[in-house]
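Hi all, posting the design record for the shared folder.

TITLE: backbone redesign
STEP: 1 of 1
STRUCTURE INPUT:
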């Protein structure tokens, strides 16, 4: 991997660590590297731990500078790369664990929601879909993804009000499965990865495919309907 993330494999567990030197912005380049890292992890037959090495931030989400440039081609390419990555992660056949110790803005939240087990450290950081707060309606693929993981009342607040939640509320909402003390998310993720080595991998793969089949159909229909170049060119006009 190059300067945007690191990949390491140890005893069947792949750590994918994001670090762009700033806030782990989900540029097209970062998204493409993440996809390549998950392709490599699948080839390795690995359980994945997805994490950030940036203090206080998991990911700042999509690159707002790309949107601000008002170039429909570049905006489309970035968002489509993010949407396709979500679809790809939902199909990842082995267990995935998110270890979050900082802010997770929308695309970072999407990555977290794709994981089978999501751990957050307690602290002064938030996760959510804040699009409406910055003048963007959340894309339908993101609504389908978040609907599959979040409690109904919290999902409404997330999508229509753009609320961002601190770890305790995010746990209740369904963004996270477990909270740990600050600095302990990595250790907790590694411990869970060890326990997941004991499950039957083929059964896990089949069960996840069955559970997510309806979601993937709806999500991919939404991607094809909304995340296309003509739609972005029309919006720019």
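Okay, here is what came back for every position:
SEQUENCE:
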């Amino acid at each position: 991997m190059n300067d945007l993330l690191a990949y390491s494999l140890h005893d069947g567990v792949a750590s994918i660590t994001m670090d762009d030197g700033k806030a782990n912005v989900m540029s097209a380049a970062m998204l493409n590297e993440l996809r390549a890292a998950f392709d490599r992890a699948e080839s390795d037959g690995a359980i994945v731990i997805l994490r950030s090495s940036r203090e206080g931030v998991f990911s700042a989400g999509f690159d707002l500078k790309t949107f601000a440039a008002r170039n429909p081609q570049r905006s489309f390419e970035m968002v489509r790369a993010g949407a396709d990555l979500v679809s790809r992660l939902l199909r990842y056949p082995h267990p995935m664990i998110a270890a979050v110790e900082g802010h997770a803005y929308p695309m970072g939240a999407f990555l977290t929601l794709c994981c089978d087990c999501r751990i957050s450290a307690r602290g002064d950081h938030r996760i959510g879909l804040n699009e409406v707060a910055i003048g963007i309606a959340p894309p339908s693929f993101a609504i389908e993804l978040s609907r599959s993981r979040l409690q109904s009342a919290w999902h409404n607040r997330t999508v229509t009000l753009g609320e961002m939640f601190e770890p305790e509320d995010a746990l209740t909402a369904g963004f996270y499965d477990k909270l740990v003390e600050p600095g302990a998310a990595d250790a907790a993720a590694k411990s869970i990865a060890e326990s997941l080595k004991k499950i039957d991998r083929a059964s896990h793969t089949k069960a996840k495919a069955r559970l997510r089949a309806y979601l993937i159909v709806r999500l991919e229909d939404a991607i094809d309907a909304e995340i296309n170049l003509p739609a972005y060119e029309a919006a720019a006009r």
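COMMENT: The chain has one domain: 5-196.
Let me know if anyone wants the other runs.
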